Amino acid sequence: MHITSPSFKANARAALADAPLQRALGNLRAGFPGKRAAAVARLPEFEALRDAARDLKNHILEHLDFYLETFEANVKQHGGQVHWARDAEEARQIILGLCQQAGAKTVTKGKSMITEEIGLNDYLAQHGIEPIETDLGEYILQLRGEHPSHIIAPAIHVNLDQVSDAFHAHHGRYGKTERQTEPRQLMNEAREILRDKFLAADVGITGANFCIAETGTTVIVTNEGNGDLTQTLPRVHIAVTSIEKVVPTLEDATLLHRLLSRSATGQEIEVYGTWSSGPRRPGDPDGPSEYHVVLLDNGRSNMLGSEFQDMLRCIRCSACMNHCPVYGAIGGHAYGWVYPGPMGSVLTPQFIGIENAANLPNASTFCGRCESVCPVRIPLPKLMRHWRAREYEKHLTPQGFRFGLGVWAWCVRRPALYRRLTRIGACVLKVLGGKTGRIRSLPLAGGWTAWRDLPAPQGRTFFEQWAERRPGGGR
Question: Where does the 4Fe-4S ferredoxin-type domain start and stop, copy by copy (predicted)?
């Protein structure tokens, strides 16, 4: 995937001016947050489950090596193989080798953000293997030549008329010449075409929501059933996932499972949950003859023991972006890489470098909604502040910002002067606000006032109030 994170500001401006995108984002704002709230309200123990999940994930990260080795041993015991990939290039080579070994010409894929992270589709195509996305949203994007803008609803930025355009442009080669415009018709058309792809595929590639150490099982949750068909019909099943997805037991997986569905889509449980524990055994009616798990590191082990370790608790539910006012205004593509929203503002600098993603930790109002809805209580604003500090240390912040912060620091080290200046500044802003209490334009604050009014200060300054309330003060 081409990285455009350094162009975040330009991407955001383009997104704000994109009328079809804004129409599609309106559906997001009206959908997922309300459904999540309703699902949570029906589960009185939801907050206790969040605490338990946070503690479980912290325990796993403290003993990650043990659980990964246990998972590998149990996969092998059931006839599967585990492949360790240090980075994206190594993961691509491993997967390509397995596909070539199977003589694959076509590969069906279930939804997997890890394969987006490593750029697998383009890599396979370059080596003569056709990857076919089977998740409906991913399939639509593949026809449109786009990447996901959301981790569970990849085509959330696409409107119905745009889906109709894509199908009409590409399905003529399958004899589908009549333009369909109704959701049910479009879904049936995609199902009919993908059915033959499922049957012809030599290899099926999926992600994994969880890897269960005690049984060597990978779990994938979907609402379409494409995960089942991708894993059971081809001769070879390859699950591509990352090292932090391991959990100790089946019971632990069900704990996270209860949080995932409610946080992601507001469902009490997803429609399909597929649990794979090795290749087909004698007597099994279906299943692959080979089962492989590719475990990707790609910088995650460097997060262990660092100030960013909490991010490894993430279960990829998307609640943070569903509730983020910035994501809701500009969508996912503006973030310029695989992971958008608050989670992407923390993960992307880790994976591609803060030099290439310095804008992302600053793309937040710090309203705290992301942390308040995270099912495993990741302190996302705190982690973004850590990246802002790294950005400042590397002198990546704009010169004007650094100059302004330097002036503020010089003043604040002189308390008497600082108090006088804040008092004068508050009075000036109050006058500029006039009767409305809103400032429409202000020198050096164009980045704010170009898009919204600046509230003028009301009442007394903090120092004035503190002088009255402290012991020995005015009251």
Answer: 305-335
Amino acid at 181: T
Q: Are 17 and 343 in contact (CB under 8 A)?
A: no
Cα–Cα distances in angstroms (integers) from residue 311 to residues 17, 88, 307, 322, in the given order: 32, 19, 9, 17
The tens digit of pLDDT for each residue in 168-221 reads 999 998 988 899 999 999 999 999 999 999 999 999 999 999 999 999 999 999
CATH topology of domain 43-301: Rossmann fold (3.40.50)
Beta bridge partner(s), residue 241 = 295
Q: Could you read off the pLDDT of 291-348 as tens digits, one per residue? A: 999 999 999 999 999 999 999 999 999 999 999 999 999 999 999 999 999 999 999 9
Reduced to 3 states (helix: H, G, I; strand: E, B; else coil), residue 22 is helix
CB atoms within 10 A of CB 381: 19
Query: Where are the domains positioned within the chain?
Result: 1-38+328-397, 43-301, 411-469
DSSP string, 318-346: -HHHHT-HHHHHH-SGGG-SSS-HHHHHH
Cβ neighbour number for residue 180 with a 10 Å cutoff? 18
Q: In angstroms, rounded to a whole number, what is the distance separating the alpha carbons of residues 77 and 281?
A: 12
Contact 218, 211 (CB under 8 A): yes
For residue 363, what is the DSSP state?
A: S
Determine how β-strand 203-206 pairs with β-strand 106-109. parallel
Give residue for tokens 């070879």: 236
C-beta separation of 79 from 287 below 8 A = no
